[in-house]
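2024-03-11 09:14:02 INFO worker-7 job=invfold-0412 stage=load source=structure_tokens
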């Protein structure tokens, strides 16, 4: 496979929301001649975000189906919910070029890698996960700076070519993110620990307050900085997170069990007035948190 200049490529998007918008804006900024198309699967209706992307000049065209224009694509980004992405693979297999790169932006890699292998697309696929985002969704909330400095994890298959991987590394450079390659299972374990379970805990904290608030809603009224910061991500899309947690169930269950053990340990320290234990618990957490570089 010849490494083609991204400025000379045609790039397709299936699903076009926040992360797809971030990537497309970056490509348009750095490679203004790249042709970019997106699937409009609600044809003839056009979603606001897709219409806005056309108006902005980020997208060149919308397609009502995976058609002959997608067959010309050099790279196709799967940006629909994690479970939905796999459903497009058989359709793509029928029309793509031999050297078309298929990638995704999902936060779970195991399921799609399995589906790619079953579909015979391992030579075309390189998984991707830009580890950035906000609680808002849609192209209208995207920017060309959101991925800057973030990790962009790539999960190539055993059949991925060095040339295709180099193209995807160039995409990460265009987004000004930091790429790292990982096996899919290692990615999913890490994502469960630092993203998926925190989202679950955020939703759970909100639901616990919702269910136990007073009639006057004092808890809701008094909620301030700490509650706001811990529950910001509970404003994320329920559709997206339903798909994510079902796709990464085993890793999430493992970490939830570990949280339960630690919470039970903390509960026992409170019951027994273990002041020294509580202090060490807080100190160890603070010391480790202070080493993080965001």
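2024-03-11 09:14:09 INFO worker-7 stage=emit residues=294
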């Amino acid at each position: 496979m010849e490494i083609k200049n991204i400025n000379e490529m045609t790039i397709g998007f299936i699903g076009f929301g926040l992360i797809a918008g971030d990537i497309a804006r970056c490509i348009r900024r750095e490679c203004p001649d790249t042709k970019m198309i997106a699937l409009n699967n609600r044809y003839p209706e056009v979603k606001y975000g897709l219409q806005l992307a056309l108006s902005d000049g980020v997208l060149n065209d919308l397609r009502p189906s995976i058609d002959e224009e997608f067959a010309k694509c050099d790279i196709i980004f799967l940006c629909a919910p994690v479970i939905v992405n796999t459903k497009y693979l058989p359709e793509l297999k029928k029309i793509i070029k031999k050297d078309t790169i298929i990638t995704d932006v999902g936060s779970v890699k195991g399921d799609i890698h399995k589906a790619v292998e079953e579909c015979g697309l391992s030579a075309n696929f390189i998984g991707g996960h830009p580890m950035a985002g906000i609680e808002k969704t849609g192209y209208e909330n995207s920017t060309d700076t959101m991925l800057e400095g973030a990790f962009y994890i790539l999960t190539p298959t055993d059949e991925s070519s060095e040339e295709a991987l180099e193209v995807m590394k160039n995409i990460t450079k265009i987004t000004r993110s930091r790429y790292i390659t990982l096996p899919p299972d290692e990615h999913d374990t890490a994502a469960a620990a630092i993203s998926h379970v925190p989202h679950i805990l955020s939703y759970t904290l909100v639901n616990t307050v919702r269910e136990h608030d007073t009639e006057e809603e004092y808890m809701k009224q008094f909620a301030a900085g700490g509650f706001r910061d811990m529950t910001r991500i509970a404003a994320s899309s329920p559709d997206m997170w339903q798909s994510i947690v079902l796709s990464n169930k085993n890793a999430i269950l493992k970490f939830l069990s570990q949280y339960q053990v630690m919470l039970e340990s903390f509960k026992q320290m409170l019951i027994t007035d273990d002041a020294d234990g509580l202090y060490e618990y807080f100190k160890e957490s603070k010391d480790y948190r202070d080493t993080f570089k965001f």
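2024-03-11 09:14:09 INFO worker-7 stage=report msg="The longest strand covers residues 125-130."
2024-03-11 09:14:10 INFO worker-7 job finished
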